[in-house]
Specification:
Helix content is 76%, strand content 0%. By secondary structure, the chain is mostly helical. It is globular and about 55 Å long. The protein starts with a helix and ends with a helix.
Length: 182
């Protein structure tokens, strides 16, 4: 990133190649669509380009980049839920929970079915919980880093993670029981 900020054109290609797949996965897990993820990835890197001079050399890139991606995600959610630009996480949580489907059926427990059931259960989480699970489990970020990325408190992130993991445990209990019996 420092080389890119300094004007090295090839540095952007290396940067993009290294981090774009992770940011893309973040958006796919958030929205369940590669087409949407493609669009939001472009927006994220456009914003990164515009904000490149704000990057502090030597600072960890991933939290800074995911803060930009989280902001892009938030803007997209506001647009989808038709919320005002100043709507925060609380309003998004309420809108997402209102649309969240809580019914679950798990039939069978083959590897493919387990994967599909877990992906489906994660997809049914409210967006505010899903993004925390993604950043924590799939990106390996700590709760303080996630709080910084989402612009909230560590306590709020931990609460969302607890609720998400608890819901996943309940929804996948039959699957886990069936798997243990095998």
């Amino acid at each position: 990133m420092s080389a890119y900020v300094a004007g090295d054109r090839r540095a952007f290609e290396r940067l993009f190649g290294r981090v774009a797949p992770r940011v893309h996965s973040f958006f796919v897990r958030s929205f369940g669509s590669t087409a949407v993820a493609d669009d939001l990835l472009q927006i994220t890197f456009l914003k990164l380009h515009r904000a490149r001079n704000d990057y502090r050399p030597g600072a960890p890139l991933r939290p800074w980049l995911f803060a930009i991606a989280a902001r892009v995600r938030l803007d997209e959610l506001r647009r989808r839920y038709r919320l005002p630009e100043d709507a925060g996480e609380e309003e998004l949580v309420k809108a997402a929970e209102a649309q969240s489907n809580t019914t679950v059926e798990i039939n069978g427990n083959s590897r493919e079915e387990i994967t599909q059931a877990v992906q489906a259960a994660i997809a049914r989480l409210p967006e505010s919980q899903r993004v925390v699970v993604h950043l924590h489990r799939f990106e390996g970020m700590t709760f303080p880093e996630i709080a910084q990325v989402l612009g909230t408190t560590e306590g709020a992130v931990k609460l969302r993670a607890f609720r998400a993991y608890e819901r996943l445990r309940k929804e996948l209990a039959d699957l886990m029981t069936g798997e243990e019996a095998a």
